Amino acid sequence: MADQFEIEIAIEEPGHASQLIDLGVHRIELCSNLNEGGLTPSAAQIEMTVDISDLPVYVMLRPRAGDFIYNRLEKHMMLEELKILSDCGASGIVFGALDGGRNVDAEFVELVAQFAQDYGMGMTFHRAFDACARPDVAMELLVELGVERILTSGFAPTVKDGLPSLKHLCEQAAGRIEIQAGSGVSAAIVDDLWTAGIRSYHCTARTKMLAREDSVEAKLGFGDYWSLDRKKVEQLGDALWRKLA
Question: Where residue 37 sits, what CATH number does that domain have?
Fold first, then answer.
């Protein structure tokens, strides 16, 4: 990490991508349906985002909302989607899968990792990690498979509640894999995350724009939309640069 820290912003709208490099962001995570934790976006969304931004674009590989235990059809679909993501220019994938015992689905994750490496794509293991029964074992497997980073809240709803676990994970990782903090990341929690050893930060940065109450769209329930929250990104970046001052 040239800046000694990384900021990754999760977006749905390709139009937001063009503003992020000027805000000091290092990577984009592209998803659809962020309200459901992020699902695989369309090919058009990926291509447009890659065209608009010079930043690396990591794409969510997740076929549905809910848990991370996938059936045979869902796994097949994920592998088919992985080729599409590569063809569309994605730099990497964000993925995860567990078995019925809530361990990493080793066979399937290894297969995804092999395909991703063949396509020259990087890998982030997402917050399925927070649902693992044996996260210490899971980390060692992910290191072995060449996964770059683990996105985690420290097994809690937000990183603020997961700080002790994040510290432990950073110690276990020991530079072999990045521990990327996500869920509730903002400038206000940077000091605590930094002390825990976190140098990779992930968050959404958007604010809901409400439609005029008298508009036809509002009456039909379609009027609201999301706008990029530039201030949140700027404040996060400022807080991190202060750690290096």
Answer: 3.20.20.380
* 149 is a domain residue: yes
**CA distance between the termini of the chain:** 16
- HEC string of 190-203 equals HHHHHHHCCCEEEE
**Cβ density class 42-77: b for 16+ within 10 Å, e for less:** eeebbbbbbebbebebbbbbbbeeeebebeeeebeb
Mean pLDDT, the chain, as a whole number? 94
Task: Say if 1 falls within a structural domain.
Answer: no
Tokens of 215: 């508009």
**pLDDT (0 to 100) of residue 210:** 72
Greater confidence (6 vs 216) lies with: 6
Tell me if 144 is assigned to some domain.
Answer: yes
Tell me the average pLDDT across 35-40: 94
Q: How many CB atoms lie within 10 A of CB 239?
A: 18
What total number of domains does the chain contain? Answer: 1
pLDDT for residue 2 is more than 60: no
Domain hosting residue 140, numbered range? 6-244
